[in-house]
């Protein structure tokens, strides 16, 4: 269901938002995008000197959906008495929302409760929504490591990549509030776009990749 064409479209739209907000994405023609038909971790950053994005196709979509076995299993785990309190606190509200009928896409723990860039909820059939959020997360890493000095909402940031630091969070916040919360990730018009050139990987193996 998640295919490369959708990822290419969404990545372009997210980069357009960044550009419209004054972020230098002149590197975008050199962006290396890898899609792998596997479960696991997606990455964004810089690899071998090129801006780099790697998406694990089988780990896109909602983390939990109502009536799904994964949700039921996790619910069983959470209500056990020996389950760590940190997991109960982390996922308790998430489970309530899924029990009420929402799909839930889970961010990493440190930002899970952030209303802009934390856990995401939506219609379980709207699988593009969690994909859009994942791409905002990863493209924010690519920008963090490739766009140099930035000014976002009046705050200035240096040229260095911040992993999951303040600079990355503000990039991610800008992208997600503009793209996911607004519903702009939904396909609007069908248009022809010429295929992008894939860049070969050359040079020294310098990796600045963040999951
Ligand atoms: Zn990350």
Explain the layout of strands and helices.
Layout: H1 4-20, E1 32-36, E2 43-47, E3 50-56, H2 69-78, H3 85-99, E4 103-105, E5 120-122, H4 128-146, E6 150-152, E7 155-157, H5 166-179, E8 207-210
Parallel strand pairs: 1-3
Antiparallel strand pairs: 2-3, 2-8, 4-5, 6-7
Helix pairs in contact: 1-4, 1-5, 4-5
The chain binds zinc ion.
Helix-and-strand structural type: alpha+beta
Count of helical stretches = 5
**Gap between N and C termini:** 22 Å
Total strands: the figure is 8
- The protein's oligomeric status is single chain
Task: Bin the strand percentage.
Answer: 15-25%
State the helicity in percent bands. 25-40%
Q: Per the principal axes of the C-alpha atoms, what is the gross shape?
A: globular
Poorly predicted regions: none
Mean pLDDT: 93
Whole-number count of domains: 2
Question: Strand count, sense and closure of the main sheet?
Answer: 4 strands, mixed
* Each distinct ligand: zinc ion
**Rg of Cα set:** 18 Å
Element string (H = helix, E = strand) = HEEEHHEEHEEHE
- Major beta sheet, strand line-up: 1-3-2-8
């Amino acid at each position: 269901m998640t295919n490369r064409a959708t990822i290419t479209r969404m990545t372009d739209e997210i980069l357009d938002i960044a550009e419209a907000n004054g972020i230098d994405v002149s590197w975008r023609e050199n962006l290396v995008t890898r899609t792998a038909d596997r479960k696991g971790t997606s990455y964004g950053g810089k690899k071998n000197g090129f801006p780099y994005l790697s998406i694990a196709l089988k780990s896109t979509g909602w983390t939990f959906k109502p009536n799904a076995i994964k949700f039921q299993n996790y619910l069983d785990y959470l209500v056990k008495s020996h389950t760590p309190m940190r997991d109960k606190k982390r996922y308790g509200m998430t489970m309530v929302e899924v029990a009420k009928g929402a799909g839930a896409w889970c961010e990493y723990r440190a930002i899970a409760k952030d209303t802009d860039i934390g856990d995401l909820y939506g219609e379980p059939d709207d699988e593009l929504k969690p994909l859009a959020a994942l791409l905002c997360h990863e493209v924010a890493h690519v920008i963090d490591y490739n766009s140099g000095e930035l000014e976002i909402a009046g705050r200035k940031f240096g040229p260095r990549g911040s992993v999951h630091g303040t600079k990355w969070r503000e990039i991610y916040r800008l992208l997600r509030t503009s793209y996911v919360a607004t519903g702009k990730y939904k396909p609007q018009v069908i248009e022809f776009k010429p295929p992008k050139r894939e860049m070969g990987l050359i040079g020294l193996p310098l990796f600045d990749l963040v999951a």
